Amino acid sequence: MFCLLFPLTSVLYEIYKPDSKPLSLMLPVNSSVQEVMSAIVRADGDHVLVKMNSSGERLQLKLDSTAVYTALGLNERLFICTSSEVEQLRPLKEQQGPEQGTTDLIEQMSSKDIATELTNYDWELFTAMHEVELVYYIFGRHKFPGATTANLERFVRHFNVVQYWIVTELCLCEDLVKRAILLKKFIKIASVLKEQRNLNSFFAVMFGLSHSAVQRLYKTWERIPSKTKRIYCAYERLMDPSRNHRAYRLAVAKLSPPYIPFMPLLLKDMTFIHEGNPNYVDKLVNFEKMRMLAKTVKIVRGCRSQPYVPSSPQRGLADRMFLDGPAARLSTYSDHALPLRTPSNIRHYIQNLKVIDNQRKLTQLSRTIEC
Q1: What is the DSSP letter of 211?
Q2: Are strands 10-16 and 77-82 parallel, antiparallel or unpaired?
Q3: Where's the Ras-GEF domain (predicted)?
Q4: Burial status of residue 36 (CB atoms within 10 A of its CB: 0-12, 13-18, 19 or more)
Q5: Which of 223, 265, 284, 288 is the most exposed place for a label (fewest CB within 10 A)?
Q6: SS3 24
Q7: Are 347 and 123 in contact (CB under 8 A)?
Q8: Is-contact 362 171, C-beta < 8 A?
Q9: DSSP for residue 338
Q10: In the predicted structure, residue 306 carries a pLDDT above the cut 50
Q11: Residue-wise pLDDT tens digits, 224-259
Q12: Is the four-CA dihedral 146, 280, 130, 79 of positive or negative sign?
């Protein structure tokens, strides 16, 4: 089922005390740090709001910072404490990510079903984002009173979640045979995403597969069929950043809407335009800069100029590549496992992915499963 996500106006803040106990409160998405703290503690106290990631790095937030909850990175959490307690804060266990993978669960879902739910969810996030959020994001939200970039940040965050989901699952799969099957499945998911013109999640999957912790799994890659490797290498060429990502831009130029663009590259383009050109020239507005930014924003509008209708991917070359070969084995799962493959359950899984984002931990896991 494809359901519309509405733009965020309020959000449930989860803020932790030094003893790791959570406090939950519903606040406007643009609430300032001062407003968040006022809802929890007395204004005359010595409390601060701290953002901490899974590695234990802490950042004390300024009182006038806004929308800090939606801007949290992967596995980052908010903590409230006194100034003297900041150095005593430690990451929560949940911030470290899962200890076990979900290989067996993924095996029960088809690549097409997983890709379709990824695309459905991406479209919800993409359409909930207003074009002007790109401008706020690049120029700085603080320059526009009352402006929000929460929907854009939510969309970008999902890209990072998918990327690290790929790495996490492969590094937590200790069985070599299962890991090779999982790797092949992720490449197939990338194929379906590309056919569905979901370039954002396509690149998220590919970035995950190109992560150093995955690339060093030589024994796993050796078990991948040569046909699968060839299509993976073809997809790698689309990621080539040379000549200003020419390979990707040529491929996108051939697409007709609706499609989901590679959002991090769009943001990179806008950042390059903004930082490389002054807002004013001879005390006059630099309209050439504004035109270049508008042209990039127009790309987003063009992507969404036609309605998205969930559909099955075409059975093209990519499908034939994976269908060729030995006959499919019969499922050994009992009937009670079948409900896991329903769209609602797959959707729930996709929207609640648990990942490890600590680079050192991912490298250690990779070395443990393949010395």
Answers
A1: S
A2: parallel
A3: 110-337
A4: buried
A5: 284
A6: strand
A7: no
A8: yes
A9: G
A10: yes
A11: 999 999 999 999 999 999 999 999 999 999 999 999
A12: negative
Give 310's Cβ-side CA count (13 Å radius).
17
Q: What share of the chain is helix, strand, coil (3-state, %, to 5)?
A: 55, 10, 35
The type of residue at 156 is V
Q: Compute how many other C-beta atoms are within 10 angstroms of the C-beta atom of residue 243.
A: 9
Helices (H), 239-327: 242-253, 263-276, 287-303, 317-323
Q: Nearest Cα to 77, choosing from 109, 107, 106, 55?
A: 55
Alpha-helix runs per DSSP H in 143-284? 150-172, 176-195, 199-209, 212-215, 218-222, 226-238, 242-253, 263-276
pLDDT tens string 189-215 = 999 999 999 999 999 999 999 999 999
The number of C-alpha atoms within 13 Å of 186 and in the hemisphere containing its C-beta is 29
Query: Which residues does 364 contact at the CB level (< 8 Å), separation at least 6?
Result: none
Q: Is the Cα torsion angle 15, 16, 17, 18 positive or negative in sign?
A: negative
Please say whether the beta carbons of 120 and 2 come within 8 A. Answer: yes
Place of tokens 């806004």: 66
Work out whether strand 280-281 and strand 77-82 pair parallel, antiparallel, or are unpaired.
Answer: unpaired
Structure tokens at 59: 């950042």
- Rounded-to-integer distance, Cα 95 and Cα 54, Å: 5
Q: Say if residue 292's pLDDT is above 70.
A: yes
